[in-house]
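Handoff note, outgoing to incoming analyst
You'll be picking up this chain. Sequence as last confirmed:
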Amino acid sequence: MSQPKPHLSFWQIWNMSFGFLGIQFGFALQNANTSRIFETLGAETSSLALFWLAAPVTGLLIQPIIGFYSDRTWHPAWGRRRPYFAVGALLASFALCLMPNSSALWMAVGILWIMDASINISMEPFRAFVGDMLPPAQRTAGFAMQSFFIGIGAIVASFLPWVFKNWFGISNVAENPGEIPDSVKYSFYVGAFMLFVTVMWTVFSTKEYPPPPGEQSDLRNREKRKIEDEEFYRNRFVRISLRLWILGSVLTALIFYQELEKELLVLGLGLVVFGTVFLIAAQFIRQGRSYLGFVHITKDFITMPRTMVQLAYVQFFSWFALFAMWIYTTPAVTSHIFHSSDPTTTAYNDGADLVSNLFGVYNGIAALAALFLPMLARKTSRRVTHFIALTCGGIGLISFYFVSDPFWLWFSMIGVGIAWASILSVPYAMLSGSLPPQKMGYYMGVFNFFIVIPQIIAGTVLGFLLVHVFSHQSIFIIVTGGVSILIAGLLSLRVSDQEEVEIKGK
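Most recent structure output, in case you need it:
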């Protein structure tokens, strides 16, 4: 049994969360400017969601792997999670400098893969860090502190293009078509610097608790690492594999013969890939190699705690909405309100700048809301707090449709900011108490599946909806996101948060 963790001071929680400030610099610049960069380099609006698939696919692959191996890492000087913080920060900073210097669309898409993978290497262990370092009663505050830094980092990063244009007179429109404006380039350079410096602050200012005696020797012992009930899980993996193969093959054939958009093939092929993963795991068990990390990752995925399964549905609808917002806010605002879809016009670039500022505002609101969410959770519950916050976000997104004066979009973003603060903290606080400590990193990584899978689905279906259902009117994608986040709020009321019940019962 693990020893009770001591309460940490405000500044200790501050230091261990400070790296999220820089990480969000990277994510905010990516979220607010990637569609702009893609369109500047010649991407069609209907293809944006497909190009954005780079981000969730890398998260799907990277986070569980990083989580699994960070659980099994220990260095006397560097600790368990901090080596991953440092490596990810170095790679992500390099990618941020490359992104605005892309000379072709294919290059920008490739760098997005590298950038998102690198940011994920740093970000995933930060979630497990809170579970490692804080006692249950402080976890909501710990994740709220992360949300605070996320909000501060994002608001500053999102406003950077506007700041460089209006404060320093740096051009917001490139001299030649197909070039990225200097205001965007300089913003990415500042983001790279901030990401590296803040993450390294956490690396050098926080010390981790050593693993329990004997844990590392057990991890090196193959026999002790073998899973129990090998035959049961081998047969179960085979059954799951066959179901996924059949479902994926039927879906792929349907898309092909109905001549639907080719990006929808990602869904069918994704099911086939997952089916193959389970088949490989079953084969490893048959060979007597159930000690392999690949087998453990597969087995733990289908035996995740009940609270995690319930939160998966909440996360699905929340992040589907967010991905729709990140991809389509720029084309929705520029076409619906500024009445321009041409990246070479002043109206389009003014609208794109407004979107960047709006993203900064919702992150600023999130930073403020993060300070009050723990208090609201104590007065009500974490489930009710999340429901209220997501309802605010849904109303905010739906209101975009009714806005004709750009001024009123600032008020729409207040609701989005409240929802964003809760999405970044409350689900993780509910989840961490249901996870076994020795698998905290892995399950936090798997939890990312329910962030990236809805993003992958969004990336494959939103373009289809835009063309065939919404007649190329991006604003209806934003409304769809609002409805999705309202559904997430209702589902949050069903989550079993046993740890909170135990804390309040003491």
